[in-house]
Design a protein that fits this description.
The complex is a heterodimer of chains A (230) and B (267). With 230 residues, chain A is α+β, with helices and mostly antiparallel strands. Chain A is built from four helices and twelve strands; from the N terminus they run ββββββααββββααββ. In chain B, the strands form three sheets. In chain B, strands 1, 6, 7, 8, 9 and 10 form a six-stranded antiparallel β-sheet that branches. The termini of chain B are far apart. The chains are: A alpha+beta (230), B alpha+beta (267). At the A-B interface, helix 3 and helix 4 of A face helix 1 and helix 5 of B.
Chain lengths: 230, 267
């Protein structure tokens, strides 16, 4: 009797990437933008730290929240900040949010064949002072939307956001305004509840929630809310 | 290959006939279905008067929590209980199997079950399946020979210990035990230590979470250290018209229903 073939799956060798988990969300309002992210950084089944900030202020009306591989994200944030500084020297003004959105897309696509493992949500105010949110994939495809979420818990949050914020189809003509009619405090309340719910079911989301609000007065960190620590 | 076919009775164990097909499917990009694991923290310890078992209550399917309050402490006999880590279906099936075999054995012998009987049945079953039944167990109980605590690994090996932990949170829990365990603790001290060990697993291991179950008598949800942190007071409005109705078909059932008067059933 011949030896039977053993079907084995190849074990993966060394990978340059790791997923540190976490979830980010942004919601655009008529004259504000709420950006939020959880504060847990994990690897595998372990927690590295319970108070890590995934939110980065890029310009005075522009905030980036990213989940994924935090080492790549740090490098990406440094890259964008440096390019923003050069812009300020050359143009004598801060970058607007739509301009930063394009810059981020180009920066991500530049590394198309060894990507930043970074799932981004960019939030802020556009040149007219209305809230704007841009979502990205890992290689720079982006779209302006009324709200967005990325990360391990995004599949749990997006259906609730879709239901509560009544997103109009982007295919409609004339283009409908995607910003939510909710007030700033109502949007913050929704974000808190959504994160509390996602934390129940996603093991990589939890510990704490950092909320940042951008409005005409500038960027302020709204609060840090506690989330489940298990 | 011998062509003479002797019809043998079906032997136990798994049939691996579909492995080649599964390998081919995976190559084509078909994802195998996830199964529900209890990525877990389970512990047991021996105290002055007997055994205390403890477990968390989270069951996961990959990175998602599928059950926030499941029961991981299974009853094998009135005096023997077993915590299970690994694939949830495997731990439940194997503990149910042993529990019914022991009950029949009790009727046959007229005696209370012994922990060593459960241990032998479990280890020979798991060993026969060569580790493919993914059940890692902490078995504990008190019988006529005294208190016993054992760990059983998926391949069938066992250890007999004064304190034991299993599951993905076992390192976090064992750290607690190794630093704080003493022989001949009282019941209160024992329960406190078990709760600390499970708590350590719950907060430091992502595969464990939610609540703490204990067992000397069954203490279901002994501690609930993870309340939900925020509930929106606004509530949610799910207005009509959100879900598009593609088609409606109404079948009036009254027309299909025939009432027939009949005789009463014979006793």
């Amino acid at each position: 009797m011949g030896a039977t073939e053993v079907i084995t799956q190849r074990q993966s060798t060394w990978s340059p990437y790791d997923n540190n988990g976490g979830t980010c969300v942004a919601i655009a309002g008529a004259n504000y933008c709420v950006i939020a992210a959880d504060r847990r950084m994990s690897t595998g089944y372990s927690i590295l730290t319970r108070d890590y900030s995934k939110i980065c202020k890029l310009a005075d009306k522009c905030v980036l929240a990213s989940s994924g591989f935090q080492a790549d994200i740090k490098a990406l944030q440094k890259n964008l900040s440096a390019r923003h500084l050069i812009y300020q020297h050359q143009h004598n003004k801060q970058m607007s949010c739509p301009a930063m959105a394009q810059l981020l897309s180009n920066t991500l696509y530049y590394k198309r064949f060894f990507p930043y493992y970074s799932f981004n949500v960019l939030g802020g105010l556009d040149s007219e002072g209305k809230g704007c949110v841009y979502t990205y994939d890992a290689v720079g495809s982006y779209e302006r939307v009324g709200y967005g979420s990325q990360g391990t818990g995004s599949t749990l949050m997006m259906p609730v956001l879709d239901n509560q914020l009544k997103s109009p189809s982007p295919l409609l003509l004339p283009a409908k305004d995607a910003t939510t009619p909710l007030s700033e405090s109502e949007a913050v309340d929704l974000v808190k509840d959504i994160f509390a719910s996602a934390t129940e079911r996603d093991i990589y989301t939890g510990d704490g929630l950092e909320i940042v609000v951008v409005n005409a007065e500038g960027i302020r960190r709204e609060e840090i809310m506690e989330l489940r620590k298990d | 290959m011998a062509s003479a076919e002797i019809s043998l009775p079906p032997k136990g164990g798994f049939s691996f006939d579909l492995c080649k097909r599964n390998g081919m499917l995976v190559k084509k990009g078909v994802e195998p279905p996830k199964f529900r694991k209890t990525g877990t923290t389970i512990v047991g310890l021996v105290f002055k008067d007997g055994i205390i078992l403890g477990a968390d209550t989270r069951a996961t399917e990959g990175p998602i929590v599928c059950d926030k309050n499941c029961e991981k402490i299974h009853c094998i006999a009135p005096n023997i209980y077993c915590c299970g880590a690994g694939t949830a279906a495997d731990t439940e099936a194997v503990t149910d199997m042993v529990s019914s075999q022991l009950e029949l054995h009790r009727y046959a012998t007229g005696r209370k079950s012994r922990v060593i009987s459960a241990l032998t049945i479990l280890k020979s079953h798991l060993s026969g399946y060569q580790g493919y039944v993914s059940a890692a167990l902490v078995l504990g109980g008190v019988d006529v020979t005294g208190p016993h605590l054992h760990t059983i690994y998926p391949h069938g090996s066992t250890d007999s210990l004064p304190f034991a932990t299993m599951g993905s949170g076992s390192l976090a829990a064992m750290a607690m035990f190794e630093s704080r365990y003493r022989e001949f603790m009282t019941r209160e001290e024992g329960i406190k230590l078990v709760c600390e060990a499970i708590g350590s697993g719950i907060f430091n291991d992502l595969g464990s979470g939610s609540n703490i179950d204990g067992q000397t008598e069954y203490l279901r949800n002994h501690q609930l250290p993870n309340p939900r942190t925020y509930v929106s007071s606004r509530g949610y409005l799910f207005a009509k018209g959100h879900t598009e109705v593609l088609s409606t078909k109404i079948i009036p059932l009254r027309e299909k229903l025939q009432v027939i008067e009949g005789d009463a059933m014979e006793e």
